[in-house]
Amino acid sequence: MSPQPDLGLSARSEVAVRGVALDLPSDTPGTTTDLGASIPLRRPGGAGPSADGHVLVDGLKTAIPINPASPYRLRDGRLVRTGPDGGITDLGVEVDTVARPAFYDLTTADGVPYEKLARLHGNDVLATTAVQTCVRYGEQDRCRFCAIEQSLRSGATTAVKTPDQLAEVAEAAVRLDGVKQMVLTTGTSNGRDRGARHLARCVRAIKAAVPDLPIQVQCEPPAPEDLAALQELKDAGADAVGIHVESLDDAVRARWMPGKATVPLSQYRLAWDESVRLFGANAVSTYLIVGLGEDPDELVAGAADLVDRGVYPFVVPYRPIPGTLAFADGDPAPDPELLAEVTARVAKILQAAGMRGADQAAGCAACGACSALSAAGG
Predict the structure, then answer these.
(1) How far apart are CA 327 and CA 332, in angstroms?
(2) φ and ψ at residue 353, rounded to 5 degrees
(3) I need a surface site. Which of 32, 165, 217, 243 has the fewest CB within 10 A?
């Protein structure tokens, strides 16, 4: 790997874990402030695994945690590091902020602010959680990194987004802000389809309003006897699907995702294989989270198996998000060097298979903001 990609991967891994802070407008050395005024586009919480400000790092979408204690700063459009002696090192990385989108200022015909229905990620991705509640959000079942209902309780969003509402928002986001893709996720329902059919209704309505907008849908694996729900997503017009396992280690799953861990990995594999059959290779993805305690070699080996299946392993770091069980317990983010190492190894596997996130029509891998894979050529 050439020095420049190494630098980009290292820098992105560092800030993905440690975040950034900015100097106050004053000349007072060593003082920091909240970045809200300096990073207009922010996603303060949600299902996870990120709660960040959205910027472009060397042109690549990047979600950066906001951390006033970080040694990293955004200064004059550059990423810099402050040393213990107060010295400033320019890391050779350009950073551009993303303006608040125009569609945030609109309200639906039934009186709901668009910003409560969908958010801009990166500079051209529209994302929403169609159902903001989850049957696994009880304290004994909850994914420890997830805050899906926290944003609902804070009033930042609504419990259920209707197909007509999402179609209205999507049309405006494309027309006013140049949105190029959309991601629809959902909390898990009690039904055998795990919420997939509501996503299908939403996709159908959005495609009727903006036929050329690529859409990825994300849900848990439908029950084995209801895999037809995946066909319904395809028939509705979805372009890609994400079925997120987060870890392939059953002990890690039991600790971090006790509710989801009751769904065996065999059921995930069944859903992945059916999704690849329907949507094609590199149109199906899953999250793998670094920092949950899974052995790095086993994580990489699991990623290789996913790639063999045609499933894109979207490697991201665990990030402590306020409002989550893991944050309350003080679980730390992973070492940036570990993240960079795992990311580089998985990127090589993806390159060998000819799979790139940027080649996907829509979805987290197509956006790339929450991962360093795009900096490593994945």
Answers:
(1) 8
(2) -90, -5
(3) 32
**Which residues neighbour 27 within 8 Å (Cβ) at sequence distance 6 or greater?**
none
CA atoms within 13 A on the CB side of 310: 17
Best CATH choice for the domain 105-376 from the list 3.40.630.30, 3.20.20.70, 3.40.50.10610, 3.20.20.80: 3.20.20.70
How far is Cα of residue 277 from the mean position of the Cα atoms in its chain?
A: 24
Q: How confident is the model at residue 161 (pLDDT cuts 50, 70, 90)?
A: very high
356-375 per-position pLDDT tens digit = 999 999 999 999 988 989 88
Q: Which residues are CB-neighbours of 237 under 8 A, at least 6 positions away? A: 203, 204, 207, 215
Alpha carbon distance 216, 270 (integer Å): 19
How far apart are the C-alpha atoms of 15 and 93, rounded to whole Å?
Answer: 12
- Does residue 317 contact residue 334 with C-beta atoms inside 8 Å? yes
CB 51 within 8 A of CB 321: yes
Average pLDDT over the chain, rounded to an integer: 89
Cβ(326)–Cβ(289) under 8 Å?
no
Span 221-262, pLDDT tens digits: 999 999 999 999 999 999 999 999 999 999 999 999 999 999
Query: Has residue 29 got a pLDDT over 50?
Result: no
